[in-house]
């Protein structure tokens, strides 16, 4: 199998530079998707979204091109009684909590589609490396969550137009569509993946041909590099 043209490298020692790159990618891609505008970059909802990036016990995963350019990111936020999507889906989350389910949310997910298309020479996003990188990041989030042994359900708030991708991975809808303030009131549906009964176990495997870098938030002011997870 041909080695992927994109890799995931170790988290750098320059914390401010790496965090700035992640926030820039998230904002740029969310603006392109209509989830935030330039004028809204510093509004309360946007600041609340960014806060989750640095709040323990969040984990942040980063995909880099071979030249060191950030290509994608995703975060996993274990439940501490509050999750980002609880801003509108708290009742749905509480239904699972009352059943004794331990939750986590995959969030802050973005892939630099234009960069990936440029580096692969593809004429369309379908032919670019972006879908491959997106799947690798989702598999990373699932793999890490399964390894913790204390997470039953991995949840995510998804724009309805993307639910097909997550359904193929094994996620299911567990609530009605609502307007999502953390995405400029775009519609979102709550989806979840049962980590104890994975419908497609292969999606919990380490991504092939990728090196996974993990950041561990220890405070809102500092993030430490954590263990390095290599593809098997």
UniProtKB/TrEMBL annotation:
Domain N-acetyltransferase: 6-196
Pfam families hit by this protein: FeeM (PF21926)
Highest taxon in the source lineage: Bacteria
InterPro entries named in the record: Acyl_CoA_acyltransferase, FeeM_cat, GNAT_dom
A GO term for molecular function: acyltransferase activity, transferring groups other than amino-acyl groups
SUPFAM superfamilies according to UniProt: Acyl-CoA N-acyltransferases (Nat) (SSF55729)
UniProt protein name: N-acetyltransferase domain-containing protein
